[in-house]
Amino acid sequence: MNSSFSRKEIGLAAAFAAILIVLIPALNVFVPEGSPLHISNFSINLWGQYLCLAIVAMSIDLLWGYTGLLSLGQMLFFSLGGYAFGMHLMLMIGKLGQYKSDLPDFMVFLGYTKLPFHWEPFASFWFAILAVLLVPGFVALIFGYLAFRSRIRGVYFSILTQALTYAACLLFFRNELTLGGNNGFTDFKTVLGFDLAKPATQRGLYIASAVTLILVYLLCRWLTMTKYGKVQRAIRDSENRVLFSGYAAANFKLFVFVIASMIAGVAGALYVPQVGIINPSQMEPAKSLEAVVWVAVGGRASLIGPIIGAIGVNGIKSWASQAYPAYWPILLGGMFVLVVLFMPKGIVGLPEQLRGLWKRYQNSKQANDPPITPSETQAADQEVKP
Fold first, then answer.
1. Residue 51 within a domain
2. Cβ atoms within 10 A of the Cβ of 319, count?
3. What local confidence, expressed as pLDDT, does residue 380 receive?
4. Is 384 part of a structural domain of the chain?
5. Which of the residues 83, 178, 365, 374 has an alpha carbon 20 to 30 A from that of 215?
6. For residue 185, what are the β-bridge partners?
7. Is the residue at 147 inside a domain?
């Protein structure tokens, strides 16, 4: 199987990267605020969040679109990455907090006099980055090993991932876990010494999110183009045939499940300093269901589809939450039903679907045209003769 990128694909990826990484920040910095081309600091921050959610959508597509594993708990891994980096951000607040203590404010409120031992390593930025990858990966490894070795698949796998997310959500609500309980982490001040309240820092986080999105896209694209990707799609289409061919399907599924969880964890770590908060509500099952809608709307098994779906649906959500806040859940549900019934391949598959409909229309039109009789042919020939 050819695992090289085509020139066209490289060109499109480069153009997309230039727009995200260069053009949009330039419109924010160099274009005056009164210009219609100016992108505000608020928009930069919002787009940074959208890009993080697009990374999560790609991780879901790697599971669902390419391997046939519909995970309804992907936002759990997103939140674990966010909590891991949030612990570092909380320790960086120091005496700038409300209680002027080296301990995070919620610990002072709960009566802690000493930092818990498992918090101490998170004072290191690089340890926190390592935890962003390893914590979601370890949870996915344990859960995936037990699930796939037990031959759990299909809707049962989806239900189990949703149950895992719900159980983790209830656990994180408890104050005894020393992770902020119901309120979680908030009021972050700095990252790597840069003030999070300054537009330049938020712009830097946006650029980091854009670069990460491009890198994750290239990684997933390369992975799906290799021999592993071929086996991956074979598992999606017929796992039994893969087993009969001698492949250990459970190992392939476990590998992609762990990789997808780590990708989601990185997205969560980038998301937290931009949104300014992380709490257990981020890992509620409804959040994971919403993320599945992004992939379905954009078009699964395409990688670019989840990016379009995540940015598009969240853009509509930002508008609808202000204009029609009570109707947003209905709009989201209606969008999902519309895609399932009339756009099974999502937005990216719409051109192909329209071409197919046009071709069927042309074929049916030709089939309904009355056949030309021999007498009509002779009459036409006589008209041509002088």
1. yes
2. 11
3. 46
4. no
5. 83
6. 278
7. yes
Tens-place pLDDT, residues 103-155: 999 999 888 989 999 999 999 999 999 999 999 999 999 999 999 999 898 89
CA–CA distance, 105 with 93 (Å, rounded to integer): 9
Q: Is residue 220 part of a domain?
A: yes
Q: What angle do CA 83, 282, 256 make, to 5 degrees?
A: 75
Q: For the beta carbon of residue 375, count every other beta carbon within 10 angstroms.
A: 8
**At a CB cut-off of 8 Å and minimum separation 6, what does 299 contact?**
305, 306, 308, 309, 345, 346, 347, 348, 349
Are the CB atoms for 291 and 300 separated by under 8 Å?
Answer: no
* Total of domains in the chain: 1
Distance CA 80, CA 258 (A): 13
Which residue range is the domain that position 136 belongs to? 7-361
Q: Measuring CA to CA, which residue among 84, 104, 109 is closest to residue 94? A: 104
Handedness of CA 47, 282, 117, 260 (dihedral sign): negative
pLDDT in tens, 247-266: 899 999 999 999 999 999 99
